[in-house]
Amino acid sequence: MATDFKSIPIIDISLLLAKCDDPKMGEDPGVCRVVKQLDQACREAGFFYVKGHGIPESLINEVKHITHEFFDLTYEEKLKIKMTPAAGYRGYQRIGENVTKGIPDIHEAIDCYKEIKQEMYGSLGKPMEGCNQWPLNPPNFKSLMEEYISLCTDLSRNIMRGIALALGGSPYEFEGERAGDPFWVVRIIGYPGVSIANGQVQPENDIGCGAHTDYGLLTLVNQDDDITALQVRNLSGEWIFAPPIPGAFVCNIGDMLKLFSNGLYESTLHRVINNSPKYRVCVAYFYETNFDAAVEPLDICVQRTGGTAKFGKAVYGQHLVSKVTTNFVNP
């Protein structure tokens, strides 16, 4: 359960990554130090920064730069990859077409998912079947994003090995039938800046993305370095800023990890409000379970929380589809 945290902890995970392919990694003193920090962050905030993650800062910055290039295009150009239900909810959304709890969000985005072939998951996966719609302009957008997604997938798997140890399991607790074939989601998001009149910023009270929790296991947030807009809610209801740290990811845990941990770890509410006059981009990578995984509390977490499972089974794909099909409005 989240606490009254006042800031987001920073964790250097380089010692964890150095041993992440060793089955005995949990015995390594350096790994143990990182695991302890992960456990504390997941218990107290559900959010943390990671540095020492091994993804080149040049690539992190290039991803943000090309995202700015895309959102600078005309609407006519961007609408060439317009999201529709027929496209498996993949593609471009205009400002206001994404909805959180019934309220339009003031952002535009490209939504991408691990591709699902026809009949791969039967009726469960039917709404999400399809290929991602990548823009042809900028010309290297697809190749750059696919390289980035591959690296984020590997990184997330390794962080989850540390979190598995933090919960008292084996490092591979979230592999196999649970997340050995992880689904992923990427949202490439642009938040307009507030208007300026007579030299003064005119706040519009518009929320870039309303308060929500994430759906899966772990999120990696790559945000513009010079704009603070992401806010995380603590136990008292205060909104704590998560300012960007160059080269670092903001990480947070999602609903499926809350279920697996039997509530030891909380998927914390967060939102985005861009009060800057500058346009802000964010590329959010979501690492999920297997699409058809039946998620329920781990035995070891049930034992650690009084012996009773607090949650029933949830099929990740059903959870995702229920969210996706209600989060999109086509005006």
From TrEMBL:
Subcellular location field:
Cytoplasm, Cytosol
According to its UniProt record, which protein family does this protein belong to?
Answer: Belongs to the iron/ascorbate-dependent oxidoreductase family.
Catalytic activity reported:
L-homoarginine + 2-oxoglutarate + O2 = 6-hydroxy-L-homoarginine + succinate + CO2
Q: What is this protein called?
A: Fe2OG dioxygenase domain-containing protein
The primary location reported for this protein is cytoplasm
GO MF terms, alphabetically ordered: 2-oxoglutarate-dependent dioxygenase activity; metal ion binding
This protein's UniProt keywords: Cytoplasm, Dioxygenase, Iron, Metal-binding, Oxidoreductase
The family database entries (InterPro entries) matched by this protein are listed as:
DIOX_N (IPR026992), IPNS-like_FE2OG_OXY (IPR044861), IPNS-like_sf (IPR027443), Iron_ascorbate_oxido_reductase (IPR050231), Oxoglu/Fe-dep_dioxygenase_dom (IPR005123)
Domain (Fe2OG dioxygenase) ranges: 182-289
User: An example Gene Ontology cellular component term from the record?
Assistant: cytosol
* Pfam families tied to this protein: 2OG-FeII_Oxy (PF03171), DIOX_N (PF14226)
